[in-house]
Amino acid sequence: xxxxxxxxxxxxxxxxxxxxxxxxxxxxxxxxxxxxxxxxxxxxxxxxxxxxxxxxxxxxxxxxxxxxxxxxxxxxxxxxxxxxxxxxxxxxxxxxxxxxxxxxxxxxxxxxxxxxxxxxxxxxxxxxxxxxxxxxxxxxxxxxxxxxxxxxxxxxxxxxxxxxxxxxxxxxxxxxxxxxxxxxxxxxxxxxxxxx
Length: 196
Fold this sequence. Notes:
By secondary structure, the chain is mainly alpha-helical. It has nine helices and four strands, in the order ααββααβαβαααα.
């Protein structure tokens, strides 16, 4: 099975099976705060092309204008239901739409915002040769990234100088030998990290 066929089949199956869950989450988001159910943001995808990523909205409307990084469980921009969704990665489920559209894959380098991609070296840009994904090695390694950022004086400096280079290194590891088998292994590791 090719990677694209895998993505189409399982994203469609996922959307069908998870529809009741999606509906409940959507209702809870609307009940707690004003604004759209979904949060759409411009990210950088394959071949350095911009696209809109779908997520469940976990912050109060306009919060993204106050900063791009989320700072742990004390970030007042995040709604109550938003904390729960982020903790169990449920806010990422709408990205199945991106996978079905073809702008994302199940597994691949997590797509960054343009601000941070502009800091990539020429060598770093090679990770944009493949489609971005819902999960990857870096997502597993930095599952508690928000908690790491909240304990520092300058979260953005820590992200740019320490976390982002490590993520890029893990993404380079993935693009050397991408395969459906590797993708399945990363997906299983992602589920295990969420359960733990």
